[in-house]
Structure formats: C-alpha cells, structure tokens
Write a structure and sequence with these properties.
Elements lengths: L4 H13 L2 H8 L3 H15 L4 E4 L2 E4 L1 H10 L1
Antiparallel strand pairs: 1-2
C-alpha cells in the first residue's frame, strides 16, 4: 500500500507537538482528520506509532524509528 506524503507530514506534527489538537491547529485541519491520518498510517505500516493518554500522545518504539526518517 502506497503511503501519501501528507500522512507523514501529519505524523511529524503530532510527534513534535505530542498533542492531536495542537497538531490539527498547526496544520489547519480538524482533530478528526489528524486522527484519521494517523490511523491510516498505522494501518499502512502495520505498526502502532503512538501511545495515547488523556494528556496527549507519545511515540512508541516504532514511532521513534519512523520519526528519525521523516524529520
């Protein structure tokens, strides 16, 4: 499955902000669109990229490896 560049852009913003709401604001898209993009990327890569909590998100091991490539 080909992954669109936009999904990596959203991933990078979420990784850097640690927050879906902040990433959405910075990218001028909805929180729902950010969540859907992350879900699509996780599905395409067959990996969980973020650990979610009420305070935000943190990168998993797989997410950290991917971040090294996209930054």
């Amino acid at each position: 499955m080909a992954v669109k560049l936009e999904l990596y852009r959203v991933f990078k913003e979420v990784a850097e902000t640690g927050n879906i709401s902040a990433a959405a604001k910075n990218l001028y898209i909805s929180q729902s669109a950010v969540s859907q993009s992350i879900k699509q990327l996780e599905t395409a890569l067959q990996a969980r990229l973020f650990a979610r909590s009420p305070r935000g998100v943190t990168l998993t091991g797989e997410g950290q490896m991917l971040y090294q490539y996209v930054r």
